[in-house]
Amino acid sequence: MRSAPLLVALALAALGLASGCPGRGGAGPAAPTAGSPAADPGADLDAIDLGPADRRPGDASDGPDERLAGVGPRTVHDLDVVHLDVVGYQDGEAQIEASTPGPLLDKGNEAFVAKDYAGAISWYRQLVDEFSDSALAPVALYNIALAEEQRGDVTAAIAAYREIGRAFPRATEAVDGLLRAAALLAERGSWSDAATTLAEVIARDDLSRELRLEAQARLGYVRLEQGQLDEAERELAAAVEVWRKANRVEDPYYIAMAHFYLGEVALRRFEQAPLRSSDAELAADMEARRVLVMRAYGHWKEALEHKHAYWATAAGYQMSQVFYEYWKVAVKAPYPDGLDPAGRQAYVIEVHDRMRENLTKALEGHQANVELAGAYGVETRWSEASKVRATELLGVLDREARGDLVRP
Predict the structure, then answer these.
(1) Alpha-carbon gap, residue 217 to 252, rounded angstroms
(2) What is the DSSP string of 250-294?
(3) What does the mean pLDDT of the chain come to?
(4) Helix, strand, or coil (residue 73)
(5) What is the pLDDT of residues 10-29, one digit of tens each?
(6) Three-state SS for 372?
(7) What DSSP character marks residue 30?
(8) What is the model's pTM?
(9) Is the pLDDT of residue 56 over 60?
């Protein structure tokens, strides 16, 4: 019969945690630090599985993009067409009146800013109807969609965004509209429609590197929420490849997003991985989980290094939380088949002793993530979640120290 300490060493070595540091050769991820911008303490363990409001930030109900808020109408000062209309006759001479689309766009924008969205839509629609040959027509349609968003009719907004693509397929607003429609569809969980819309964008031959990066990153997120992990990984990896081939992409938002969700793909595989009880299977299963978590950690680290405040704090949250996930897997793992029931108490004590420092690392990481948000001068739902997690982990550590959790 194997001794409890030997079984513990086998299991933890397979997980890469025997020294308290996940990774190969004792070198593994460290909790994020805040140097550069780059909750009930007495609750049961399962009660803190998901974070604030009983869910982990980044779940489908959160939506993938904080950029949908706070937009205003597009303004263009290009009187590109002039219509000459006969409005009457005087002394046998036709009376000609010239009209341009610019004033209609201006009136629509004035109404939009005044929050008279119905009035704004009326002016924009008049422009589209009377000046369909104008470059301002797709701009007006885009603003109609924005106004529909502002008055809460998301279905009408999506329809208007898609109308741009049908009526003015080569306008800049056509691609922008499809991308925004896809984001709105994703926000309300219409994953299949969002995927179809994004595939339509990706199939175009006129995309800039920046727009292709955005579309691939968004489609990867949608595939993830559909539970299609292989497809999600493929789309997100394609986004990373687009970024690598670009000479320069000024905005780090979507490359950071792609890396973050590549981490989430690996995390979901980790969560779905089996954990069997025979000695050989337990060692193999824990090694497979270690590899998946290290892969996730690497992508979150990449996301953090792109130094976008939102995704950096998202990555910081997950990089910290992974230490808690490691701890939870080890302390909840099945007993090895070779362990005599009489040795279970010693086994549990050994596991908790070896794993406790991962709780400390998780706590320090969440505290550092709050500091990271402060270094950026922002608060995100991720940094706020880290505040809650830090409080919860203090409670878990207190219960660990009292021995409340150290029982077979």
Answers:
(1) 12
(2) S--HHHHHHHHHHHHHHHHHHHHS----SHHHHHHHHHHHHHHHH
(3) 82
(4) coil
(5) 334 333 433 333 333 333 44
(6) helix
(7) P
(8) 0.80
(9) no
Tell the burial category of 4 from Cβ atoms under 10 Å away from its Cβ (0-12, 13-18, 19+).
buried
pLDDT in tens, 300-319: 999 999 999 999 999 999 99
Q: Within a 13 Å sphere around the CA of 31, how many CA atoms are in the beta-carbon half?
A: 24
C-alpha span between 62 and 366 (Å, rounded)? 20
Give the whole-angstrom CA distance, residue 130 versus residue 144: 15
Start-to-end CA span in the chain (Å): 19
For 245, the 3-state DSSP assignment is helix
Percent of the chain at pLDDT above 70? 77
DSSP string across 138-202 = HHHHHHHHHHHHHTT-HHHHHHHHHHHHHH-TTSHHHHHHHHHHHHHHHHTT-HHHHHHHHHHHH
Q: Do 324 and 17 touch, CB atoms closer than 8 A?
A: no
Distance CA 394, CA 264 (A): 26
CB 161 within 8 A of CB 138: no
Residue 387 has a pLDDT of: 96
Q: Name the residue type at position 203.
A: A
Domains and CATH numbers, the chain: 4-76+171-402 (1.25.40.10)
Q: From 84, 73, 69, 145, select the one nearest 112 (Cα to Cα).
A: 73
In this predicted structure, the answer to whether residue 37 has a pLDDT above a threshold of 50 is no
Task: Tell me which residue of 137, 67, 78 sits closest to 108, measured CA to CA.
Answer: 137
Is residue 386 over pLDDT 70? Answer: yes
Alpha carbon distances (Å) from 43 to 213, 325, 338: 42, 17, 32
The one-letter amino acid at 291 = V
Strand intervals (E) in 9-151: 83-90, 93-99
Q: Who's near 357: CB < 8 A, 6+ residues apart?
A: 20
